[in-house]
Amino acid sequence: MKKQGYPHRGELVVCEITKINPNSAFANLLEYEMTGMIHVSEVARRWVRNIREFVKQNQLLVCSVVRVDEADISLSIKRVSRSESERKLQEYKRERNAEKLLEQMGKKFNLNLENTYDEIGYKMQDEFGSLHRAFDIALRNPGLLTEKGIDNKWAEAIIEIANKSFSEKTYEVKAELVLSSFSPKGVDIIKEALVKLEGTGLEVRYISAPKYQLVGRGKNIKELKGLVASVSEQAIEQVRKAGGEGSFAIEE
Predict the structure, then answer these.
(1) Are 234 and 195 a contacting pair, CB within 8 Å?
(2) Cα separation of 116 and 107, whole Å?
(3) Could you give the dihedral angle defined by the CA atoms of residues 196, 199, 200 and 202, in that order, rounded to the nearest 10 degrees?
(4) pLDDT by residue (tens digit) across 145-164?
(5) Alpha-helical segments (H) within the chain
(6) Which domains occur in the chain, in start order?
(7) 94-112: average pLDDT
(8) Which residues, 6 or more positions from 174, have their beta carbon under 8 angstroms from its beta carbon?
(9) Is the entire prediction scored with pTM above 0.85?
């Protein structure tokens, strides 16, 4: 998958390790087709005797962008939690699959992948956040494509390939999420954690404090359960950092 421009500070990016030095490692940012550097001090939260104990050649991992100075990009591994890494990798996998659909769509108009991105792919990302979400919206609310300025020719192509590719069974996974905080600002802390969940593609339902329900829908039941679990862990981690507590259980 491709993104335009440069990543922003704090953004999570999927990287592949390309070179390892005694005090640093270099990695390709797969979504941006750029190279970044990971200093040894950003590899782990403890003292690192040998950087090769933590990174391997050709390893795929998720990093946080620390600094962007034109082509000089600094990355961090230690600033990414396990749940954030799992979620980002799942998002990346979904977007790679969506990119294959984009490529198929471009062939209909005798365009290669690069030209298809220029014609419509980047606009889909700008208007809907990702290719996968654009195809998903084409199924649920196809009229929104033209409302967002997508040309009729491309809107029809997006809807056609979305219906063809996403017509298989959709699974639903639910989890009960319990979040509590005794802080004077406890309500705001929990509200902030729940607001962040809304951007993950999962539905958040209020049961009765301190219980909430997360609902995820998708084609791959295993990936869906993993997403629900990692997102739940992320919310719990955020509340715990503020002195609260939490737990979750996936409903069978």
Answers:
(1) no
(2) 9
(3) 100
(4) 999 999 999 999 999 999 88
(5) 82-107, 113-116, 122-128, 131-140, 143-147, 152-165, 186-197, 221-241
(6) 12-80 (2.40.50.140), 83-165 (1.10.150.190), 171-251 (3.30.70.1130)
(7) 94
(8) 213, 214, 215, 216, 228, 250, 251
(9) no
